[in-house]
Amino acid sequence: MLIFNFNKWNQPWFYFFIFFISNCLIAYGFLGLEEKLFIIFYGILLPFVFCLFFQFRNSTSQINSTIKHLFANGDEVFINPTVFPIIAIILLLLTTRFYRLDSIPFWPSKDDGHFGVLGMWLSEKWSWQLLWGECQNEPLILWMLAFYFKWIEPSFFSLRLFSALVSICSVPLGYWAARQFFSKGYSLILTFFLAFNFWALISSRICIGVTMVIPLEYAVFGALGRWLKNLKISNHFQYRDVLVLGILSGLGFYTYAVWPVIFLSISIVVFYQMWKRPQNKIPLLLYGSTAILVSCPILLAHLALNGTTHLRDEFLRQSITGSIENYFQMLFWKGGYCFNGPIWGGAFNPVEGALIFLGTASLMMDFKKRYSQWFFLTGFLFILPGVLSNSVEICHVIQLLPFLCFIAVLGIQTIIASSPSTHHWKRITIMLLAILILNLYHWLGPFQDWKSLPSQQSDWVPIEYFQAYKIIKEKSLQSGPLNVFSEFTLDNYNKTLSIACHPLDALQNSRIDPNTTKWSAVLINKYYVPFLKTRFSHSQWFLLKRDDIRYHSDLALGLIPNDSIKKEELAALKKADHVLRDLNLQLKAKTSPVPWTEIKSLFYESSKSFENDRFLSAVFWEKIAFFDSERLDYGDATQDFERSIRFGYPAANLYYNLEMTLKMSRKEKEAKKILQKAVQAQQKFIFFEPTF
User: Fold this and answer.
1) How far apart are CA 632 and CA 625, in angstroms?
2) pLDDT confidence of 142, banded at 50, 70, 90?
3) Distance from C-alpha of 480 to C-alpha of 509, rounded to nearest angstrom
4) N or C terminus: fewer CB in 10 A for the chain?
5) Cα distance between residue 685 and residue 197, in whole Å
6) Cβ 525 vs Cβ 653: under 8 Å
7) Percent residues over pLDDT 90 in the chain
8) Would you say 523 and 532 are in contact if contact means Cβ atoms under 8 Å apart?
9) Which positions ≥6 away from 299 have C-beta within 8 Å?
10) d(CA 341, CA 330)
11) Rounded CA gap, 380 and 397, in Å?
12) Distance separating alpha carbons of residues 535 and 414, to the nearest angstrom
């Protein structure tokens, strides 16, 4: 009787449900640490061990004897795909990628703006620069955006459309790669996972460098599979296949810093095949030389001065065991680590997680086989950029996500192989629908609530720019294009408003006749409002965000009729905005760290554009003070704020920041006097306080 019960336990469905329930309780339940540890041990680890035990105990079971059907390229044994699921996947793909394209999420992240404005700049003035910005971003996405913006006008919608098109093109590329290895039915299931996992959904609305990794990863593994298939058929190397594989492997280095582990994974297979056939050394040399030749420029750029600064700062400063724990939680149970990662549960929902655990057990059963050993080695390589980094960021393990999707398909195959039936497609359909519903809810629900982000990352999607865009767009619908002055703030990184306003901004868009604009929109620190409202009496002002923290640079938006601005004043504002925009782009393009002397000289060269206007003088010295504060030079920052007040407007934000720098310089008495002036200056703002 006991043996009979044990045999009943030897069912993958049984372990799938245990894993599923355990994942649900950990991911969605409100449990303490002790309860979670209890569930992890008794609901995941112990069942995983039992699952392995029973599979080893029945080494001749149907599960192991039918593993070959996953990799078969002939007739289907368990799944016979029809046209209907293919059409369903295509319709779901197009629906999810285009549904409310310009409103989900409601506003792009500051990284979207970073890549967007650099892509705009590159489309107007080409550069072969390879590393961009303080994070030393690889250039492939910028090159693609540069050509894209030559055909489609930059805008909020076109930026989202670019991401959607990349996401859509990735899916058939993933299916093509899967078909090089797997049967039609399992390739179709894997394509479903690749198309509708959580990252696939969110990456269809973000425009950052890492989104280029996935399609190129599909392409390079597809090329590897095609090469291996031809090698098996003809028993000799096709130089064309090796050449294509080398080009794609080298091109991947232009996507994102995680590509070396993908390249290493591919190279392991190539070198193994060469080792088995030592007489064929020329293809090995062709692959290696092609990959090196293609990737050499970007590798040399990283090896050049400051080329590895960001990488050195990003890695090997955190406990590896703690990092492994955090990444495991982010993948399966707990989000909230990063702005583009999961919020509700993990990156994989409980159904996907249960299938991945089950598939891992099945893969361990075949550990003696070469493909299984390669999968475990590849999984180890793919997780390394994450566990060795200083932060829990989904971009660091992006290469692992398609790998885990395959493991989930292997879990489905394990379930199918354990109970032969003619109705497998019904069970699979129910399972895939559950996965789709959970991922769609996660994406359209909790993930869209920007307030759910960690407090230190909520500025990735600032509400102020969204509010400003709504006001500017409404005014544009009423009165036509505007002059949008968006460079007079201290936010030098987030340029999402510049992207969104490009179609209606005469200052950016060369297709707009500047003489046709009737209004100007000015984005400023809220404490400048009293001075500019007095100066431009017909202006309208809107406070974009309210808080009670006096040191915050809360923004206000002003709408000023152009006929109420003197021509020389408007010309000065346009010139200053152009200078600051150009300076910002130059600084965004440079790899960090940019010497302060270089930054300061760029500002001083343009100082004449700000001298004859008190508002512009205040902005000019405030920006220089900001850079001095960033490098912790509070003595120079104090002098900069004093100049800003003396030559510009005595606004409360300048006094508050001056008081802060005096405190940091340990000049307490002077700081107290300045604080009194700051409070007095703030009273002017309260009197003129705009409404929203």
Assistant:
1) 10
2) very high
3) 13
4) N
5) 49
6) yes
7) 55
8) no
9) 253
10) 8
11) 11
12) 74
Task: Report in angstroms the alpha-carbon separations of 630 from 492, 603, 626.
Answer: 12, 16, 6
Looking at residue 483, its amino acid is N
Alpha-helical runs (H) found in 304-389: 309-314, 320-332, 350-365, 370-387
The token duo for 221 is: 């593994």
pLDDT score at 222: 96
Under 8 Å CB-to-CB from 319, ≥6 apart: which residues?
none
**What single-letter DSSP state applies at residue 548?**
S
pLDDT in tens, 209-260: 999 999 999 999 999 999 988 888 777 777 888 899 999 999 999 999 999 9
Residues in the chain: 692
Q: Report which secondary-structure segment, H or E, holds 73.
A: none
Is residue 71 over pLDDT 70? no
Closest by Cα among 127, 318, 141, 108 to 212: 141
Map residue 315 onto helix, strand or coil.
strand
Interaxial angle between packed helices 213-234 and 400-418, expressed in degrees from 0 to 180 and rounded to the nearest 10: 60
Q: What's the per-residue H, E or C state across 477-531?
A: HHHCCEEEECCCCCCCCCCHHHHHHHHHECCCCCCCCHHHCCEEEEEEEHHHHHH
DSSP assignments along 669-684, one per residue: HHHHHHHHHHHHHHHH
Sign of CA dihedral 343, 344, 345, 347: negative
In this prediction the pTM is: 0.92
Cis peptide before 105 (omega within 30 of 0): yes
Percentage helix, strand, coil, to 5, in the chain? 70, 5, 25
Q: What's the rounded Cα separation, in Å, for the pair 210 and 207?
A: 9
CA distances from 601 to 8, 302, 586, 618 (A): 77, 26, 13, 18
CA neighbor of 466 nearest in space, from 488, 492, 499, 512: 499
User: Distance between CA 347 and CA 193 in Å, rounded?
Assistant: 12
Give 544-594 pLDDT, tens digit per residue: 876 645 445 688 999 999 999 999 999 999 999 999 998 888 888 876 666
Asked if residues 616 and 576 have their Cβ atoms less than 8 Å apart, the reply is: yes
Q: 420 is written with which tokens?
A: 């032969």
Among 77-91, 476-490, 611-625, the minimum mean pLDDT is found in 77-91
- The upper half-sphere exposure of residue 13, i.e. CA atoms within 13 Å in the direction of its Cβ, equals 10
